[in-house]
Specification:
Layout (H helix, E strand, L loop, with lengths): L8 H31 L68 H5 L2 E5 L4 E4 L8 E5 L4 E8 L2 E6 L5 E5 L3 E7 L17 E5 L3 E5 L8 E6 L3 E8 L2 E6 L5 E5 L3 E3 L7
Antiparallel strand pairs: 1-4, 1-7, 2-3, 4-5, 5-6, 8-11, 8-14, 9-10, 11-12, 12-13
Length: about 270
């Protein structure tokens, strides 16, 4: 039969002391552990300890500073104002009228000593004065003949044989011969018609009498419609003729001469 263990009052006292010692040892060990943790920057909360509710936790408010807003300013190009260039009004030039014809007539001395002239170019103007600024009173082609009365600068004072107009013509287009020109129609008695010649008549207004059977040959004089000629023969497109009133001989364009009968050719 087992024996029951029973403590006496003194045993309870010893047991209580042992419990207290054990608790103190545990407490000391815990404090040592807590103290070591604080030295390393760590807070150790023991399970047996109650949290200190009297301590209000520090609330750290993080203020977020907004990044500065950079306002993009548009690039404004300032253009200097354009100053308009003043336009000066220039009135149109007043046209100066061409000088009118000088009322000049050849003197008796000029008529007496006039020279025979002939144009060397086509489309030459006869003007009212000795300058290209004067009015044009006529236009003539190569071979036209004239009486040259006088010289005035770069122009000759002339009278055209074709129509009797008096004016000024550029010297560079006129060939002046040493022959004396007559201001009045010649009154030479026409020669008798040669036996071998054929009577003819000029049918065009103006026909040049030339030195050869080509239109490029030099013009001797001009024949007018109705002038009587003696036709000798034909060379190509030209007749060899003699002017009935002056006796001058030369070649005239056959189409402008009317012959009384067939003309022999050479």
């Amino acid at each position: 039969m087992s024996r029951r263990f029973r403590l006496k009052p003194a045993g309870y006292a010893v047991l209580g002391v042992l419990v207290i010692v054990i608790v103190l040892c545990v407490y000391a060990i815990a404090r040592a552990i807590v103290g070591g943790g604080k030295q390393h920057g760590e807070d150790l909360v023991l399970p047996s300890e109650s949290p200190d509710l009297s301590t209000t936790p520090e609330i750290v408010q993080t203020t977020t500073t907004p990044a500065p807003v950079i306002s993009e300013t548009p690039l404004v190009v300032t253009q200097a104002p354009v100053t308009p260039t003043p336009v000066q009004y220039t009135p149109p030039p007043t046209k100066t009228p061409d000088p009118k014809a000088t009322e000049r007539v050849p003197t008796s001395s000029e008529k007496k000593h006039a020279k025979a002239g002939e144009l060397t170019a086509d489309g030459v103007n006869l003007r009212a004065g000795p300058s290209t600024s004067y009015d044009r009173i006529g236009n003539y082609d190569k071979g036209a003949t004239m009486a040259v009365y006088a010289t005035d600068g770069d122009f000759y004072f002339v009278k055209m044989d074709k129509d009797g107009k008096i004016g000024f013509m550029s010297k560079k287009f006129v060939n002046v011969s040493e022959d004396t020109a007559s201001d009045t129609p010649k009154t030479t008695v026409p020669p008798d018609a040669p036996d071998e010649a054929i009577n003819g008549k000029v049918t065009a207004k103006v026909v040049a009498l030339r030195s050869g059977p080509n239109k490029t040959d030099k013009a001797i004089t001009e024949l007018n419609r109705g002038d009587a000629v003696y036709v000798y023969y034909q060379v190509g497109e030209f007749y060899y003729v003699q002017v009935a009133t002056t006796g001058k001989k030369g070649f005239a364009y056959a189409s402008y001469i009317s012959a009384e009968k067939s003309v022999p050719t050479k």
